[in-house]
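Marked as duplicate of an earlier ticket. Keeping the data here for the record.
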Amino acid sequence: MSEAEQVHVTPGAVHGEETLELAHRVVALDESLVVGGTRLEPAVVARVSRTIDGVRERIELGVDQTVVALVGGTGSGKSSLFNAVCGLDFADVGVKRPTTSQITACVWGEDGGPLLDWLTVAEDRRIVRESLLDGDTEAPLRGLVLLDLPDHDSIEPAHREVVDRLLPQADLLVWVVDPQKYADDALHTGYLQRLVGHEAAMVVVLNQVDTVPADVREALALDVGRLLVEDGLTGVDVRPVSAVTGRGSPSCATCWPPWCAPGRWRPSAPAPR
């Protein structure tokens, strides 16, 4: 590796082949800007340079861990879904939820301290999922960093500010909606319509399907998909789940859906703020 290609390593960060591979690609992109010089549009150069700076910052922390953020509004049940995935009663749910602007994190494998510091997750809001008692049951999730964010529609501005700051830092956004509020304008005009072009790094989970008759669940999921297309988003996966009954809910490593497999996602251009 040349001097230009050397990766600055943050002490304690998780680095592996994925990090080194992405570092080579960033160097090649940076060199292409130099070669292009004045033949490139200044606005394009500025945008690409900002992207390179953001990716380099993440590379220093390692990209061998995948940051998946659960994002949703009040009452969507995303904290319950977080607990179901972790198999632990860790995230605040119910009446406690509106009182906190804190991020909750569950990590499989390495604790990822530097990465969680960068994400500003408080020490007492972090938990490492794997233990000797688990054996290899959680091994498929190794490398996953799951975040439970504050409600994006909270009446507290500080809560929304945390969400807005974290969105560009996540590798995969899992938007959690419910049958009553999935068409909420605050979600679609405030967030989803600004994410056109980032469809490959997001998925929508229709939670609480246990609260509606079984014969209308498919129609609800199709309607969510219709609204996404109207937002300009194409090819976004919509998955009906229930954190209460476990229907479609990944409560253990063996049933975690493939769209969140650690190592599948790579840092991309930061999402619009």
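See parent ticket for discussion. The radius of gyration is 19 Å.
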